Amino acid sequence: MKKEKKRLRELFEKMNEILLRERGFADVEMGFAELVGRLNTNHTYLYKAVKACSGMTFQDYLQSIRLEEARRLLDSTDEQVTAIALMSGYKAVRTFYRHFREHYRLSPSKYRYRNEGDETDDAVLPPIPGEGNDSDKIRP
After folding, report:
1. How do the pLDDT tens digits run along the chain, 140 residues long?
2. Which CATH number fits domain 2-118: 1.10.10.60, 3.40.640.10, 3.40.50.1000, 2.60.40.1090?
3. Considering the entire predicted model, what is its pTM?
4. Which of 46, 64, 81, 85 keeps 20 to 30 A from 103, CA to CA?
5. Alpha helices in 1-140 (DSSP H)
6. Extents of the domains making up the chain
């Protein structure tokens, strides 16, 4: 059982290498099938690794990474929201707006306006999975 958890963790870390360090999340064509091929694994095993290590489905995990990047860009740049959506890996700006609003309870424009020049966030900002918080631990 420990070997299995170790293998799942290693696969999850390799996936994060592609998504985070190589900025694969920003590629609008990046998806589960693409990662399966690049990691030379199968769908079931990658799904199991993501679920065990993040507690999320792959799609939810990828979306959370993209939304965190969008939030970071809204905080640190003057880029237009449509450009930020594309830079964060969204093909459709409408989808980006919907996901951002569902996740942060504000539209991207309202989030930026509300947080301009303010170091304290009024919005609830969940941490990015896999970046040193408890959500990246393998659950029993």
Report:
1. 789 999 999 999 999 999 999 999 999 888 899 999 999 999 999 999 999 999 999 999 999 999 999 999 999 999 999 999 999 999 999 999 999 999 999 999 999 998 876 554 444 445 545 545 444 444 43
2. 1.10.10.60
3. 0.79
4. 46
5. 2-16, 32-39, 43-54, 58-76, 81-87, 93-104, 108-115
6. 2-118
